[in-house]
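Field reference: sequence -> structure
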Amino acid sequence: QVQLVESGGGLVQPGGSLRLSCAASGFTFSNYWMYWVRQAPGKGLEWVSTINTAGRNTYNAESVKGRFTISRDNTKNTLYLQMNSVKAEDTAVYYCAKDLPGALDAWGQGTLVTVSS
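Structure field:
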């Protein structure tokens, strides 16, 4: 069955960096667009980044543009989110998700990122 497992979250100081990973299995990873979505404490889901199948086209929310980079390694069935210059408002649970397309039909369990000094 489809499985997405995020890792790499933790505590990071403001201005620091962190790289999240999402290991995919149970489907042909290279055939699907992938997403990062986050949920801050007490708030709703917020789209963060999207990447196309080959990894050549990426899209980012304004709130993370210039600081976060989404990428993928189709040989390793892994999605990444490089987070630089993090801010307190980036504190959230980060989820990777698979595009059906037209809907996100599979989600990981999430990894918590806490930005604090």
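Note: The chain has a mean pLDDT of 97.
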